[in-house]
Amino acid sequence: MSDDFRENLRFLCAEKASAAQVCRDIGINQQQFSKYLSGRSRPSANNLRRMARYFGLEDKDLLGSHTQLLLSYRAKTATLRERRQDPLATVFPGDLARLRPFLGGYQVYFQAPVDPSGYVVNCVFLDERNGVVYSRLIEALADTALKRRRWTRCDGKVSYQNGRLFVVDSERKNENALSMHILTPPPRQKRQYLFGSMCFLASMPRRMPYASKVVWRKFETYRPVRDLFKSCGIYSAESLRLDPVVRKYLSGQMGEETSLL
Q1: What phi and psi, each to the nearest 5 degrees, are found at residue 139?
Q2: 25, 12 in Cβ contact below 8 A?
Q3: For 3-85, which CATH superfamily applies?
Q4: How many degrees, rounded to 5, is the angle at CA 182 between CA 181 and CA 184?
Q5: DSSP state at residue 147
Q6: Residue 257: pLDDT band with limits 50, 70, 90
Q7: Contact 8/15 with Cβ under 8 angstroms?
């Protein structure tokens, strides 16, 4: 690995409180990290990715020339200055380190606005870009009149504050309708679930504000995305395809340990 990598890493560490703090934040052994700084050792692909993510850069930025790193870093800091002018810049993403374990894809379950006996199943994806976590929610409901699915996409941001996740998104095609999810990380025995509540402006009927309990269920990384989209729709409360844990929470049968109130 070239001397540029060593120089790049030293420069980035100089912008932080100390190299020891960098090691604690990333979770890398300080003795091993010192070898990176001195050029006596090369990081594994995994450690390289962790360091790049920590500094808000790409792997190629750390491995490239020092001149290129300076250009990338200055562009990043300029973006951060612009974000600080936003009154919510410190809110999103909030505690990024605690938020990162929740990145990935989920099935989203909540009570159907037009049919209290049914549950809507959507899917949502959380990903990190430039130090901010974004959400992309996809809804695919059957349109019986047109005999096809009606697709809706909502894009938003995610924050981690005081042990909870806050997701705010907008559907641009629906007069910039907003929705908000407040989710609580689960107890150990239900790690794949996030329980909480949501509110939004329902498009049917009469575009009225609507609120419901909601469950996010993380799906397996090996599951094809097209299969996830196929799972979207409206299910009856008795459907065998409905997760029993989800049914129990949405029907109010689950204990208050998962309640936001």
Answers
A1: -120, 130
A2: no
A3: lambda repressor-like DNA-binding domains (1.10.260.40)
A4: 135
A5: T
A6: very low
A7: no
